[in-house]
Design brief:
The chain has 13 helices and twelve strands. By secondary structure, the protein is of the alpha/beta class. A seven-stranded parallel beta sheet has the order 8-7-6-9-10-11-12, sandwiched between helices. α6 packs across α8 and α6 packs antiparallel against α13. The two termini are about 30 Å apart. The mean pLDDT is about 95.
């Protein structure tokens, strides 16, 4: 427990407590053991008194927005902890210019996000949403062709991005008896490949041409923006399914809509889109061969609590001058 001079706990700025966007109520007691919680509403209403108390910010699903105005108003801010892996919503160089450290939560999210990826793959392959509606419809008659799915066992899964999440997808996929290909900036060690039965594709084109399911699990960077576009989609099999558990802008959504409408690929299962949520009139929402979830990734009770624990560990390390376990540096 970090105690400030005068016996006060360090101030931790959060967007809100409870409600639609606030930190979960089940996390509040744990956070209050270490910090004096300050919401954005409280800060705006009493900036003169509270701005000097804020030593850390905990971003809950990208909120509060970190901009120059906020950074300038918090003279004692030392660290910002993010509730997830991706930092693409932050201007890392701007934050660093204020002498503020940053951390993410890579360890807490990987298992649950890999679970979500497998859930999307299976749900799309076996058309679970469609057959659920058939099962509960007023009519008990249906065409057999309307419930035929794709066999997963024996299929080829191509994983683009073999980091923590991608590798855990591979571990889970092995149990479903799929053939695993992967493409990554750096090749995994031979023993890691052998443990999951994965084959490395140096070129992404080779993976796209062979895979029945393509799962994208990369970080969003300038290099991965629109990584999957018209050309890449046309390299895929017409029977293939694209699964995106990374970030929406990694896939060119206009090209994806066209590919799905014209049969270039069979289907898509997306946990991420751009923007989130999509406008209610977006064409992706009207297609029957698309399954969309609202960025569920790591959103399980245990994973979200682990995210908060990881954030607290990083914040306390920064405030006490110790190395941060998950520090993120500007590139």
């Amino acid at each position: 427990m970090q105690i400030m001079e005068g016996g006060e706990l360090p101030g931790l700025l959060v967007i809100d407590i409870g409600g639609i966007r606030g930190i979960l109520l089940s996390h509040v007691a744990f956070l209050k053991k270490h910090f004096y919680l300050i919401t954005m509403k409280e800060l705006l209403e009493n900036r003169k008194h509270l701005s000097k108390k804020v030593q850390a910010i905990y971003l809950w699903w990208h909120k509060p927005v970190i901009d120059q105005e906020l950074l300038q108003s918090l003279p004692n801010l030392k660290v910002i902890a993010n509730s997830g892996v991706g930092m693409d919503h932050l201007d890392l160089k701007l934050i660093a210019s204020f002498g503020v450290k940053m951390a993410n939560a890579p360890h807490a999210v990987s298992s649950s996000t890999a679970d979500a990826g497998m859930a999307l793959l299976l749900a799309s392959a076996r058309r679970l949403v469609e057959v659920h509606h058939i099962a509960i419809s007023s009519s008990i008659d249906y065409c057999e062709a309307d419930i035929l799915g794709v066999k997963v066992a024996g299929a080829t899964l191509g994983i683009i991005g073999m980091g923590r999440i991608g590798y855990k997808v591979a571990l889970r996929s092995k149990a479903f008896e799929v053939n695993i290909l992967y493409h990554n900036r750096t090749r995994r060690k031979a023993e890691e490949e052998q443990a999951v039965g994965a084959t490395y594709c140096e070129k992404i084109d080779s993976l796209l041409q062979q895979a029945d399911f393509v799962m994208v699990a990369v970080s969003l960077t300038p290099q991965t923006h629109n990584l999957i576009g018209k050309r890449e989609l046309e390299l895929m099999k017409p029977t293939a399914t694209l699964i995106n558990i990374s970030r929406g802008p990694v896939v060119d959504q206009e090209a994806l809509v066209t590919a799905l409408q014209t049969g270039v690929i069979r289907a898509a299962a997306l946990d991420v889109t751009y923007p989130e949520p999509l406008p209610r009139d977006h064409p992706l929402l009207k297609l029957k061969n698309v399954l969309i979830t609202p960025h569920l990734g790591s959103r399980t009770d245990k994973a979200t609590y682990m995210i908060t624990e990881e954030a607290v560990e990083n914040i306390l390390a920064a405030l006490n001058g110790r190395p941060m376990p998950s520090e993120v540096l500007p590139s």
